[in-house]
Design a protein that fits this description.
Layout lengths: L1 H12 L29 E2 L10 E7 L5 E8 L3 E10 L2 E2 L3 E2 L8 E6 L5 E6 L13 E8 L2 E2 L3 E2 L8 E6 L5 E5 L14 E5 L1 E2 L2 E2 L3 E2 L10 E6 L5 E6 L9 E6 L10 E2 L10 E6 L5 E6 L14 H8 L8 E6 L5
Antiparallel strand pairs: 1-24, 2-3, 3-4, 4-5, 4-6, 7-8, 8-9, 9-10, 9-11, 12-13, 13-14, 14-17, 15-16, 18-19, 19-20, 20-21, 22-23, 23-24
Length: 328
Amino acid sequence: MRQAILAVFFILGGMAGGNLTAQRYDANPAGFFLPDEAPLVARTMASGFISTGLDELSGVFTPDHLAFYYTVSHRNEFSAILFTRYEGGIWRYPEVVDFSGRYADADPFISSCGEVLYFSSQRPIPGSTREGVWNIWSVHKEDNGWGEPQCLVIDPLRHERFPTVNNMGDLYFYADYGSLLVTFEFQKSNIYMAGRHETGYNPPVKLPASVNSRYADYTPLIAPDGSYLIFASMRPGGYGQSDLYISYWQEDGNWGEAVNMGSDINSADSDHYPLLTPDGKFLFFSSDRRILSPKPPEGASYSYFKRVGLGPGNGLNDIWFIKAPGEQ
């Protein structure tokens, strides 16, 4: 019943179009969430449906644009991977994906073929003596959903997060390998790459100083063709607590000097967790920026304050989108 009510509400609302006539999205399911043209200034994605006032991170579509996966977390106390799917002409109410919900899971990334979903998790690794460690896992597509999670086992004793993969299968992620602590030391986070080979991955290589800094560098997104890398950094000189930076692959076989992506995307708060739509037109990212609400109307009700205080733009992460680099 709840799904049916929500389905009617969002069809009537016209998420992308904003009108109040009944709409179907059979020809373009992603049109429920995204406009025809990617904006030049960042906008909130699906306010009230995906961006709700909870901590929402790491949004990614399947290649056919018929499902959308993302992370919901709460004060580092829990973290789960959710998804919504297009079915029967509507987008269904978000659910926890079947392999998530028991352990802390985050950072879904779907391969370009749609057959593999990579993610970060604190679930125990068989044979490991440590608990609560973030490592990188994957699940493979099966007829009725996803298979059993498998750990990539790069370093079971250190924290590794936010996997993204290029068309060659090379894995990019961030890790606290530079930390001397047992617990996760975020400020020691840097970006690494593990090249793919026939049976697994080569030992990870730290990206050069043109990308990594003495400050926290994290959530790397590698372009499918490897032409650029977008990541978050807390280095000084930006617009906020963390900003998104971009580095381009050079003809000489090196990463170019990372540059700030500017005020159209970055804010005075934390901007991070970049991911692309499968067609490469839109760049998703997460931000905990606040959206200033208008002065309450005279006689404002409790419902008004609840909607404003617990809705998107309340200072927890929401998912935003903007035109992707290189798009005309």
